[in-house]
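thought: user wants a sequence for this fold. calling inverse folding tool.
action: design(structure=
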């Protein structure tokens, strides 16, 4: 019983994991493009992907700590 409660999914967890993984994949795919929009030496789409991964990770861990069980 303890094992089941410890690894039970919380509401929104799958969506947040998808957002994190999408941002990671998007970061690497945008690195392969040659026609990227550059700003101050950085690719804008890669910076936005990193911001999305960071926000998604923070929300995921907050959800894990304070979220409700399904």
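)
observation: tool returned 70 residues.
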């Amino acid at each position: 019983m303890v094992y089941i409660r410890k690894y039970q999914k919380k509401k929104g967890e799958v969506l947040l994991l998808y957002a994190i993984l999408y941002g990671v994949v998007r970061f690497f795919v945008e690195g392969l493009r040659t026609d990227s929009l550059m700003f101050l030496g950085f690719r804008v789409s890669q910076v936005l992907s990193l911001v999305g991964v960071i926000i998604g990770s923070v929300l995921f861990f907050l959800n894990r700590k304070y979220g409700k069980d399904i």
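thought: summarizing for user.
answer: Here is the designed sequence. The mean pLDDT is 83.
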